[in-house]
Structure formats: structure tokens, C-alpha cells
Amino acid sequence: MALKHPKIEQLEQHCCEALQEDLNDPSLFTYADFDETEVERTGVSNYSYWRSTLRAFSKNKVAMFLLILMLAVVLFTFIQPLLPNQFDPFLVNNNPATGLPLKNQPPNSVHWLGTNQIGQDLWARIWSGTRTSLFIGLAVAMIEACVGILVGVLWGYVRKLDFLFTEIYNVLDNIPSTIVLILISFILKPGVSTIILAMSITGWIGMARFVRNQVLIIRDRDYNVASRCLGTTTWRIIMKNLLPYLVSVIMLRMALSIPGAIGSEVFITYIGLGLPATTPSLGNLINEGRKLMMSPSLRYQLIYPTILLSIVTISFYMIGNAFSDAADPKNHI
Amino acid sequence: MAKYLLKRLLRSFITLFIILSIVFVLVRQMPIEGYFPNIEKMSAADIQRGLADRGLDKPILVQLGNFFKDMILHGDLGTSYVYRDEVPVTEILADKIPVSIQLGSMSLCVALLLGLPMGTLMAKYKGKFFDHLGTGFIVMINAVPAAVYYLFIQLYGTELFHINLLFSQNPPVVRWILPVISMSLGNIAYYAMWLRRYMVDESKKDYVMLARIKGANENQIMFKHIFRNAFVPLAQYIPTSFLNTVIGSIYIESLYSIPGMGGLLVDVIKKQDNTMVQGIVLLFACVGVIGLILGDLLMVCLDPRISFAKKGGDR
Fold first, then answer.
1. CB B143 to CB A310 under 8 A?
2. A114 HSE (CA, 13 A, CB side)
3. B164 with B158: CB under 8 angstroms?
4. Model ipTM?
5. Which of A95, A140, A287, B203 has the CA that lies 20 to 30 A from A120?
6. pTM, rounded to two decimals
7. Could you give the CA distance from residue A246 to residue B105 in angstroms, rounded to a whole number?
């Protein structure tokens, strides 16, 4: 600890040398010229939060690969219907010779991943389903984040609201989400927007509690107390002091809620409250495949959607983890 | 401390009351057609009689009052109408709860027995092969939806061990193997992940360095010093987890047709068996509230630095 910083040592040496020089040199006692580049060098740091985050993230090879893979998958779900030799995911394919539906065709050169029980092309259905599932996942994550952050910050920061919100949380958390899901599906007709609404209504509570706990940890740090003493408004403290600090944990939680939402879509479909069977989604496809899994020759109808689902969820999970590491200023140099 | 506990219990009762009231009102928003499967064939008088049978014809506040009066004065949760006609709710639940508790506590024990050593070893060999292996496992379990890997365990497990698909077709011990494995995987990953995180955090602290300077050997430091401190935050969840086994697992129990609590709630909500829904919600809410209190108590017992007296005023 007693060791001197090398720069201080240098400075001392420099002073000693200067003193030994002839102090009578008049040029030493004139005003120094104003040099803009010198001012810039010390005055402004070229640290940029987002640039450092990006740099740290791009160092993680696995996460970069998965990010590119995910972008490719998202892009491909839109490109796929435009490619030549594709089938409509809703079209029941008939055998031109006999006129009967091509049921349960194993993967072949025409139907790349085979056909399902009623003769629809599995390849087209899987991509259409991925599009639906990704949309549901992203939408639910966004809505959860918006509502959850807003409520969570107020809950954690405004002390008077803590008691009220905690009681509301205890109540809402104990109302089974199935009741809410069923009631919503009674009121609205089943579809993508209904399922997004239902999942957001039950999902924001967890996000709010998470943000609240994070805010509680930092709300009384010295810099926040100082801001408060200086009369900074609550809104400004939240926007400038709290949220930038929490960006990495919130991003992580958001990235994890995408695979979470995709997974619970599978589950909700399983208990019979999901999308109607006419709308392909990964949940629907896996559920259709599940019914056939006991006959080994038809198992491909379960395995292909599962592989795609696993790739998507694992990628988002890994990207989220890598991003939250990168977004943590402690890991910036 | 007794005063704090009393206050907390009192608040819990209020919470329970509100939860039950909300659920009570919510289930009564369901359409009337749902109560009678063959409503087209019924006359208006029949429908009216059916509603009166269930006490649904009175104003909602009167119904609510009657429900609480019966529950508090007689411990009576009413009888089921659809699920099993005229059988008291408590009796149906008493049949189902032990099965779920058995499944849940077995899988939780497996999870603790495997997850805690796994987390400890991962922290000990941080950055080595075992750590990477464990992290891979945790990522897989966390990222792939449970609904999917349960399915594959059932699919390949039944083929591998040559056992039957359904719970009731298997001999007494064998029938539990696959459900318990499926159910414990998530918890193994959970305990291993958090124990590793906490232990890595703890091992950077000064008292660990002091122990090392004293010349304590690495195993002693790992288990006697670090583990004890790192385990405290996890201990809070253990009572809740054990109590939550009452809820059962809807997915596993329906995959293997285990006659437990799992699918019961969804089932009775769909069949609009109001008394059953209220009974189950009451049970689950009690479990949740008691679990939280027990968790805090256990944390106080394990870590003398934490006390209830501080908790109220300090924030």
C-alpha cells in the first residue's frame, strides 16, 4: 500500500530535474499557450457505456454466434414463405394420383420434414410456428418489462407505497393464473393477441417484484441520498440514477422471459387453453407430435419442432446471460 | 419476536380473506351454461332449481357471507357438484394430497442430495472441466421448457427401463422413478446454480483468506466456512418448496396419470365446480403464506446475524 503510484514518482523526478535546472531561465515564467488538444486529453474521457458493452459482448464468441444464428432464424421465418418449392402451412396436400391426403409422410425430397396427420407440410408449419412463437415471446417480454419496471420502481422507491404494493402482490400472486387464463379465454376469442394478453397479465407481477428488490438494494446508496438532498425530483432520480444502474439485470431478466414465454405457451397449449389448432405455433406442433410419440416411425413430428424450440430458447438464454455480463460496468475496462 | 410473528400472522389472515373473496367473485363470473352440460334440454324452472341447489341464485355478497360463515364456524368447505357429486371438498382433497406430497418430497430430497454437492463441487473447481459440465447442464435445464424435456424423459425412459407408460401399471417402487427424476431436474439445476454463485461470492471475502492464513485445509474452508454462509440465502426457500409439494405438478402428474393434486385445479375450473376451486385456492394460499413465514424463521435460526426486530424499521 505504501508503494507510490508510478506517475507520482515520475512527477517527483521531473520536479527535481526542473529545480536543478537554472531557475533564472525567463521562459519558465511566461504564460503557457492554450492548447486545445491538451485540454481534450484530460477533460473528456472517451468512455462510452454502450460502446464498451458492445465491445465486451463481441468478445464472447459463443454468444456472438448465437446472436447471429437467432437473427438468421428470425429473418428466415419471414423469407421462408417466399422461397421456391414451399408449401402453404395450412394447405392439406393431396396425392395427385389418388386424390387422398398425403398423411404422415416421412421426410422426403418434396416435403422436407414430412407431413402431419392430415397431410400438411411440416417444414412450412414449423417455420410458421416459430414466427408465431417468437412474436408471442417478444411481445410478452416487452409488455412485462414496461409494466413491471414502472410498477417495480415505484414499489421499491416510494416508501409509502411499499406496504400497499406488497399486500397487492401477496394477493395477486396467490390467485391461480389458470382462473385468469380461463376467464380471459371466455371473454375474448382464442388467438395470438388473447394469449399475449393472458400471459402478460399474469407475468408482470414477477418482473415488478424483481425490479423492486433491485431498487431496494440501491435506493439508499450515498449518491441517491445526495441527489435527494439537492432536491432532485423523484422522476429524475429514477431515470438518471436508478434505471441506468439496473439496465444489465433488467436486460437479463427480459432476455430470460422470452424463452419463458415460449415455454409457457407450450404448457398452456397442453392444458388446452392455448391457440386454436388452426394457428401453428411451436406449442401446437409439439402437442400434435406428443399424441403420436408412441409410434417410433412418426416420432419425427415431435422431434423436429422440439429441436427448433430448444435452439431458440437456449440461444436467447445464452445471449441474455452474455449481454448482462457485458452490460455490467464492473466488467468494462 | 413473538409480537412480530403475531402481527405477521394477523396480516396473513387478511391477505387470505382478500384472496378468497376475489377468487369467489371471479369464479362466479363464469357463464351459467358451464354449470349444466345439457342446458339446451333444460326448462327455465330446472335451471332455476339447479342454481338454487348450489346457492347461486342469491346476491353475490350473501353467498360470500355464507361461505365464510360455514368455513369459519363449521370448518365446512361445501360439497363438490361436478367433480364427484355430493362428496365433501375436504374428503376429495384428503385423497389426493398424500400422493402429491409423496412425489414432491421425494423429488425435493433427490434435488437437495444431488444439487447441493454439485454446486459445492462446481464452486470448488471453478473454471475447470466439472464447472463447465455443470454449467452446461444448468443452461440446458433452464433454457429448454420443462414441458419438452419431461416428454422426452417419459419417451426414452420407458423404453430404456422397459417400464410401462402409466403410473398405475408399474410395481410400487418402479412407478416413482421417472416422475421423480423429471421433477427433480429443475430443482437440481436451481440449487446447484445458486449455491455455486453464493459460494464463489463468499470465497472472495476476508474471513476465507484469514482461514487460509491460519492454515486450515481447503476442504475445511469449503465446507465449514464457505458452505455455511452460502447456504443461508438458499435455506429460505426450502420450507416453501416442501410445502409447495402439496400443489403437485400438473404436467408430470398428467403425463403419467398420477392421481395427485396437479391437474385438479385446472380440471375443476374448467368444470366450474366452484366449491372445489375455492377449497383448492384456500389450500394453496395457506401453503404460500405459511411457507414465507417458515422460511424467514429458518433463516433466523441458521444465521444469528439476522433478526426480525431489525427488519421492520431498517429500510
1. yes
2. 18
3. yes
4. 0.75
5. A140
6. 0.78
7. 37
A49 touches B at CB < 8 Å: no
Q: Which residues of A274-289 are buried (b: 16+ CB within 10 A; e: fewer)?
A: bbeeebbbbbbbbbbb
What proportions of chain B, in percent to the nearest 5, are helix, strand and coil?
Answer: 75, 0, 20
CA dihedral A89, A92, A98, A102 (to 10 degrees): 60
Closest CA to A298 of A123, A78, A38, A103: A103
Question: B 138-177 residues with CB below 8 A of A?
Answer: 139-140, 142-148, 151-152, 155, 165
Q: Supply A200's cell numbers.
A: 402478460
Mind telling me how many Å the CA of B220 is from chain A's nearest CA? 31
**CA separation for the pair B19, B55 (Å, rounded):** 21
Per-residue pLDDT of chain B in tens (315 residues, 90 and over written 9):
778 888 888 888 888 888 888 888 888 877 777 777 676 777 777 777 777 777 777 777 888 888 888 777 777 777 777 777 778 888 888 888 888 888 999 999 999 999 999 999 998 888 899 999 999 999 889 888 888 888 888 888 888 888 877 777 777 788 888 899 999 999 999 999 889 988 888 888 888 889 989 888 888 888 888 888 888 888 877 888 888 888 878 888 888 888 888 778 888 887 888 888 888 888 888 888 888 788 878 877 877 776 665 444 443
Question: What gap in Å lies between CA A47 and CA A28, rounded to an integer?
Answer: 35
Please name the residue ranges forming H helices in B125-263. 129-143, 146-161, 174-202, 206-214, 218-220, 227-235, 237-244, 250-255
Tell me the count of A-B CB pairs closer than 8 A. 104
A76 touches chain B (CB under 8 A): no
Closest CA to A153 of A42, A46, A238, A263: A238
Q: Name the percent of chain B lying above pLDDT 90.
A: 12
Give the whole-angstrom CA distance, residue A226 versus residue A84.
64
User: What residues of chain B lie within 8 A of the CB of A314, using their CB?
Assistant: 139-140, 143-144
CB environment B51-80: b (16+ within 10 A), e (fewer): eeebeeeeeeeebbeebeeebeeeeebbbb
8 Å CB contact between A242 and A215: yes
Task: Give residue-wise pLDDT tens across range A22-72.
Answer: 666 777 777 777 777 766 666 656 777 888 888 888 888 999 999 999 999
Average pLDDT across chain B, whole number: 83
